[in-house]
Design goal:
CATH topology of the largest domain: GROEL, domain 1
Helix content: 40-55%
Structural class: alpha+beta
Largest sheet: 7 strands, mixed
Number of strands: 21
CATH architecture of the largest domain: Orthogonal Bundle
Shape: elongated
Number of domains: 3
Distance between the termini: 9 Å
Radius of gyration: 30 Å
Strand content: 15-25%
CATH superfamily of the largest domain: GroEL-like equatorial domain
Length: about 550
């Protein structure tokens, strides 16, 4: 008689579990779907996506990270691919679609190897070897660049904007980008540091993209607080105050008893005297412009206006920090401590009507370390897309200056990288060789997609590209407009090396991580139970880990 064993449950009821090949396939499928979603946006001829959120807000963009962010992806493996895009955005500011498409292709090719019974850890090890070698190859083929190479920097900026909403005005915008980045460059121990936070991008709907301007200083979305104040102040002496310019109320509840009208009058007179004293202290220091992070009392506004001092209140903390870097002013908390040394300088502070709002321009600063680009455009969507293009462009120029190395674009570095990785694969023995070859095949998805999105036959162009690279033309890339192979460097298609190195490292790391997962256990939620939507799992009714078969 066979014994019957009681099924043993080690996981709570409602938990869903996928193991082995199923788990891996589900994860790879999810990652590939994310890559497919953004793949059509790659390159100058890439298409845009329109994403409508639950509130009906519309975003139109071909910026990889923006698309993935707005899509609110749920699947855990797909979220890991979205993180690749976010890392690329944070580190460089551009190349997000490249990184995601490459990660998806690595996983797709890994799946073919798994079908040939190559073990996932062997694939993972091969991918790691290939990624390390790829960094070395990219470094060797790159060219040097410095802040004197204005022409190359402008080409990098234009390459970043090509295919985005700002393409029509890329000549003008790239000039603004390069000027802005050069203005905020800092040098630390002979290395160049660019903090992108010091370039403020202010959007205003109205005019056209050509009306976009670079202000060597700060543009504040604020107007002067009192109509009696001057609209324009030349040779501005600026004071920055981070506390309220008004009488503080007492910390504890206080009661003031007044028995006769004279006492009331004296009380009011004293209050006015204190407030007038505040305005006098500001005027005495020689300041003629006040920016306050908190409020300014109406009475103080009146006295400041009488003295011809320009004032704006409730200025954001980030704007106050930009003003410090642009004007050299120091932040004051207590007006009693205010002296002439604390003041900042600007050639002009003026209130300007932009669209239907008044804004304060602080311009003509001497050697400002913070600048503002005021972006204009016909509609909200245009302005948003130009801003995203400018962010990519600023990120690229900054990354090129900080690493000091650039490569040509147009798919040239990827084809060269694939060629040299295949040579490297031939030097390996063992099954890792297959993974390195898969890595080389995967990187070719970038030029292939560039061609497909431009309506060029990918097989013909890839054959031609490989032939040129075999003859030693390391910058042979695709000319998107003619559909022919061209020298991308001579054509002015230039990108920072950091885009490529970051994309290779992020994509390979996430591909290895997903390959190593062989078990997905989705805990039953307290509310709904089960796995997140879109995640395959076990059939309903299979609680926990199931039992053992009868003996």
């Amino acid at each position: 008689m066979s014994e019957q064993f009681q099924p043993i449950f080690i996981l709570p009821e409602g938990t869903q579990r996928t193991t082995g090949k199923n788990a891996r396939r589900t994860n790879i499928m999810a990652a590939k779907m994310v890559a497919e979603t953004v793949r059509t946006t790659l390159g100058p001829k890439g298409m845009d996506k329109m994403i409508v959120d639950s509130l009906g807000d519309v975003t139109i963009t071909n910026d990889g990270v923006t698309i993935l962010d707005e899509m609110q992806i749920e699947h855990p493996a797909a979220k890991m691919i979205v993180e690749v895009a976010k890392t690329q955005e944070d580190e460089v500011g551009d190349g997000t679609t490249t990184a995601v498409v490459f990660a998806g292709e690595l996983l797709k090719n890994a799946e073919n190897l798994l079908d040939q019974q190559v073990h996932p850890t062997v694939v993972a090890r091969g991918y790691r070897l290939a990624a390390a070698k790829a960094q070395e190859i990219l470094d060797n083929i790159s060219e040097k660049v410095s802040e004197e190479d204005i022409d190359i920097l402008k080409k990098i900026s234009m390459t970043a904007m090509t295919g985005k909403g700002a393409e029509a005005s890329k000549e003008k915008l790239s000039d603004l980008t390069v000027r802005a980045v050069k203005q905020v460059v800092d040098k630390e121990n002979n290395t160049i540091v660019v903090d992108k936070e010091n370039i403020k991008l202010e959007k205003k709907v109205g005019g056209s993209v050509d009306n976009t301007e670079l202000v060597e200083g700060v543009v504040l979305d604020k107007e002067k607080v009192h109509s009696g104040m001057p609209r324009r102040v030349k040779n501005a002496k600026i004071v920055l105050v981070d506390s309220a310019i008004e009488i503080k109320s007492t910390e504890t509840d206080a009661k003031i008893q007044i028995n006769e009208p004279m006492q009331m009058q004296a009380f009011l007179d004293q209050e006015e005297k204190i407030l007038k004293g505040m305005a006098d202290k500001i005027a005495k220091s020689g300041a003629n412009v006040v920016f306050c992070q908190k409020g300014i009392d109406d009475t103080v506004q009146h006295f400041l206006a009488k003295k011809g001092i320009y004032a704006a209140r409730r200025v954001k903390k980030s704007d106050m920090e930009a003003l410090i870097r642009a004007t050299g002013a120091k932040i004051i908390t207590n007006l009693d401590d205010l002296s002439e040394e604390d003041l900042g300088n600007a050639g002009m502070v003026e209130e300007v009507k932009v669209g239907d709002e008044n804004m304060t321009y602080v311009r003509e600063c001497k050697n400002p370390k913070a600048v503002t680009i005021l972006i204009r455009g016909g509609t909200e969507h245009v302005v948003d897309e130009v801003k995203r293009a400018m962010e990519d462009s600023i990120g690229d120029v900054s990354a090129a200056l900080m690493t000091g190395k650039v490569v040509a674009g147009g798919g040239a570095p990827e084809v060269e990288l694939a060629k040299q990785l295949r040579q490297f694969a031939d030097s390996l023995s063992g099954r890792e060789q297959l993974a390195v070859q898969s890595f080389a095949d995967s990187i070719e998805i970038i030029p292939r997609t560039l061609a497909e999105n431009a309506g060029i036959d990918p097989i013909d162009i890839m054959t031609e590209l490989k032939a040129q690279h075999d003859q030693g033309q390391k910058w042979a890339g695709i000319d998107i407009s003619t559909g022919k192979v061209t020298d991308s460097w001579a054509a002015g298609v230039i990108e920072p090396l950091k885009i490529k190195t970051q994309a290779v490292s992020s994509a390979s790391e996430v591909a290895v991580m997903i390959l190593r997962i062989d078990d997905v256990i989705a805990g039953a939620g307290k509310e709904s139970g089960g796995m997140p939507p879109g995640m395959g799992g076990m059939p309903p009714g299979m609680g926990g880990m199931g039992g053992m078969p009868p003996m």
